[in-house]
Amino acid sequence: MRPLDETETTVVFEKLFKFVGNNLKKIVENPSDEGPESTPGSYCFRLQKNRVYYVSEALVKRATNISRKNLVSLGTCIGKYTHAGSFHLTIMSLNILAANAKHKVWLKPTSEMSFLYGNHVLKGGLGRITDSIVPGDGVVVFSMSDVPLGFGIAAKSTQDCRKLDPNGIVVLHQADIGEYLRDEDEL
Amino acid sequence: MPALTRNKKKGAKPQTPPTKQVTKSKTPPSKPQISTLKKGAKSLKKPPLKKQKKEVVEEAPLEDDEVSDDASIDAESEELDESDDGEKGSNGLFYNDDEEENEDDDDDEMTLGDDFLEGSGDEDDEDEEEEEEEGPSDVDSDSDSDGDDLVRKSDAIDRKLAKEKEDADAEQQETNKQDETEHDAFRLPTEEELEEEARGPPDLPLLKTRIEDLVRALKNFKALRPTGARRKDCVEQLKADLGSYYGYNSFLIGTLIEMFPPGELMELIEAFEKQRPTSIRTNTLKTRRRDLADVLLNRGVNLDPLSKWSKVGLVVYDSQVPIGATPEYLAGYYMLQGASSLLPVMALAPRENERIVDVAAAPGGKTTYIAALMKNTGLIYANEMKVPRLKSLTANLHRMGVTNTIVCNYDGRELPKVLGQNTVDRVLLDAPCSGTGVISKDESVKITKTADEIKKFAHLQKQLILAAIDMVDANSKTGGYIVYSTCSLMVAENEAVIDYALKKRDVKLVTCGLDFGRKGFIRYREHRFQLSLDKTRRFYPHVHNMDGFFVAKLKKMSNMKQSSEEDDEAGETVEQAEVSDDDDDDDEAGETVELAEVSDDDEAEAIEELEKPEEAIEELEKPKEAKENKEEERLAKSKKKKKSKKRKKSTSNVEEPPKVRKQKKKRSEWKKEIAQAREEKRIAMREKAKEKQ
Prior knowledge:
heterodimer; A: Archaeosine Trna-guanine Transglycosylase, Chain: A, domain 4; six-stranded mixed sheet; 7 helices; 28% helix; elongated; B: Alpha-Beta Plaits
């Protein structure tokens, strides 16, 4: 377990910035309740076995006496470095993304399950969408009852969506909570 | 005369019956003289015996000592006979009446009685039956037997009545027999039959009926026992039948039979065949139970609150969608979790900002519940030894939005070294176990578990619970608790483990905070556990409709480990006692006697030398020790070295030696014996020492 170096930090922050925009500052400065101290601490990012964790500093301090080999996870895992060296956000980061998301789409109940099986979000399944999305922005996907379901990359801007035919792709799938069942081993 | 004899009689009669029979057989020579008198006595007495037995005592005194003695015996034996023979009732009635008239005046009655009694038909029979030597006198009495018409009439009536009664009795007996045969329709199969059965595939209906019969018989063995069968045979047969009908191995079914009475056993086994209701736990980090229930109801899930003791549990009756794959489940709004696995967490009662260790955490049901109760504050070490299970643990933690956990992969026994001793507030030890409480989930338990395996689990559990206790800080402001739970029913994995922990560490049992469940065993077969074990809780599928479960909550009283040597001895005896009680105890006792003798000498010395300054003592001890011990204890030298170290400690603290001795004595009776032996030995040693001086 070690802190991220500079390049890693920029990569991770860029990824997060796509989804949360200026709320990134909020994520970094958020006071943490975890840890036995009653006074709130702060969060930090740590790298452990190719995975990046978003974790309270109090926990980091107390995880130091666990050997690297035996430390499996701490706090929240937000993404991992692939073999090729690129950084991917994983579904476990959804809680953080959803709480701070800048761009959101809401799915109709009928298309929820389709998304949870790993499909892209189509115009026909779209219930609501926030304004001012440009293609390439990170979008968090919610059900109509505001349950976060996953996230992806916008394929069309909000304006374009209006004219789109029902089978057109609005959000390209990146991760969904169905992975907890489908790919538990790869999380 | 009568008055006199009466008194004598009263005194003698109740005590003598057995000896009288002897005297009776010895007395024949004198018989001819008293024969008439005697007969009178008998026949006088018969009636009261039959109809008014209580008056016997008052009637009896009428005769002379000897006579009345004999008579009373006869009367007693007659009593038995008469009650069987209906025919003889006639005289009984007749004399009975007579008696009632004369009850007040004994003297009169006596004379009357003598006259009448000469000829009573049934008397002959009885005499013949009981005393063959009386033959001659009987002849006389026979001739006298035809009395008035009245007598005959009453005779006839009596016979009639008696016959009716007899008939009624017979009828009654017959119906009784029928009842019995109804219950008793089954008998234990013979060996040949069993062999026959063993050849073919099991005949399930036959087994089932036989099991039912056996269980019914065992419930009320006195009344319903199969003819000629011992209880042990029945139990063995029941064991074999249950084993083959439900597919248990002989060890497991044997243990279950030992633990439960037959009726409850059947309920339990039947409950194991059924699935427990699916229950879910609301994740209070993300939603509330009512909201969740609404959402799920809209999805076509039929559910209800679990029960009054849980505010987060819901029970699912049926569902149109897979309950483990709804968007809400995936979003971490609830966890599929057996009702029983809520209990240890409720017992643990974690508080915010505490440090908690979950020793065997996967798949994270309990860990996430703890985190929810702590509202994601504080710190949870979630440990899991098995690598494949770590995936599900981390996945569940993330799905449920738990952020205050550190997941690590250690053997639970190493944890105190890694996390530090006395560093956390609470520990949840949901120990790996044989799983005999969750047979309905995993049928393979029925066949795979053996006594050996249980023993191995118990051993691991004992190590784990000590490790768990070592991690807890007794001085914690809010905590200092350990919760131990298993999903096993075996006493060896539950009460025995707790009992062991109580002996080894300074902990005590506290109430679990669960107001239902059965109390843990204090006594089980050869085991005798500490009384506080009734604060542990057992849960059964047939009683509480959840998986078989055991929960115990311990509070750590101090961070001290109990003095090592005492401790080790205790540990040994505990472990060995479990294997086989008697033999090992004896051996153990033998060993400790040796040890005790050695240490005792030391102690004696120590006491003598207490007045001297400590430093001087240490110097003095070695030579002295050498002198005294050369004669006796060459073999025990290695032991002695250890002991001498201990002694140094004890001499430094004046009050310690007696304390130590007291504790030892308390432990059990053989310790007392040892203490006595010590005392004697000590005296002997002192005398020796004096002689030397």
